[in-house]
Structure formats: C-alpha cells, structure tokens
Amino acid sequence: LLLGCELTASTKSYTFQVDEEDDSDHILALSVVCLTDGAKDECNVVEVIGRNHENQEIAVPVANLKLSCQPLLSLDNFKLQPPVTFRLAAGSGPVHLAGWHRIMHREDASFEDDDLSEEDEEELPPIMPAKK
C-alpha cells in the first residue's frame, strides 16, 4: 500500500497508526521527503516520533530540506514500526512524504504472499565474531 502525506504550517504533523488488536505485523517504509510547490527558501526540518525499545517516546530528525540547496531527500525505504508521527519541527513547508505500508499476516500465510516469502527465505548467514 502506498503512503503519502503533506506537512505544512497549518498541518504540522501526521500520525500513522494501526489497529492495536490487529494480529499482523506492519512495516512502514519512508522513501522520499521533498519540498513541494509554494515552499519558501527556509530550513524545513522533519522529525519522526516513535517509541524506543523501552517504550519511551523519542523524536529523531530525518530530513532538513531547503529549496536552494536540498529540496529532496531519498530515504531508501527507511523502515519504521507504527504507530509513528511525522512532524514539521521547523519551517513552513509544504513538505511531501512518500513511502509504503506492508502488512505481514502472522498466522495465515495466504497464497498472495507466496512470491514474497521466497525472498524472505534468502536470509544472510549470521555475522560471526572476528577471530583475534
């Protein structure tokens, strides 16, 4: 599923969440963050707000865009675990975020996922510690 949202001076944040009772694993991947038509030449800082391994809320800047020097940033499918909030921490935008949302069903591996599960089986061997 494709994901897209726009952050502006009037809409500074967007939260992506899933139903907590859903028994599926959800992966949200951020592909591109870019300034769109009407952006001023100012620093636009986009933060991702999520939870760390201790379930504490953390905010991490992922992009600092400026029309004259960096209007677009490719995040190479930066994977996140919902719920996650995208916030325009500085600047007035508009900043467009694009990515995708993948749902992995835990209990029933449906026949539609057969193509995907073949890729998942090709795991890399575990990294062994260096010999001293």
UniProtKB/TrEMBL annotation:
SUPFAM superfamilies: Nucleoplasmin-like core domain. The keyword Methyltransferase does not apply. Residues 3-102 form the Nucleoplasmin core domain. Keywords: Acetylation, Chaperone, Methylation, Nucleus, Phosphoprotein. It comes from the Eukaryota. One of its GO terms (molecular function) is chromatin binding. Residues 110-124 have a biased composition (Acidic residues). Gene3D superfamilies: Nucleoplasmin core domain (2.60.120.340). InterPro entries: Nucleoplasmin, Nucleoplasmin_core_dom, Nucleoplasmin_core_dom_sf. Signal peptide: none annotated. One of its GO terms (biological process) is chromatin remodeling. GO terms for cellular component: cytoplasm; nucleolus; nucleoplasm. Residues 110-132 are annotated as: Disordered. It is found in: Nucleus, Nucleolus. Plays a role in the regulation of diverse cellular processes such as ribosome biogenesis, chromatin remodeling or protein chaperoning. Modulates the histone chaperone function and the RNA-binding activity of nucleolar phosphoprotein B23/NPM. Efficiently mediates chromatin remodeling when included in a pentamer containing NPM3 and NPM. Belongs to the nucleoplasmin family. PANTHER family: NUCLEOPLASMIN, NUCLEOPLASMIN-3. Interacts with NPM (via N-terminus). Forms a pentamer with NPM at a ratio 4:1 (NPM3/NPM). Two pentamers form a decamer. This is Nucleoplasmin-3. The gene is Npm3.
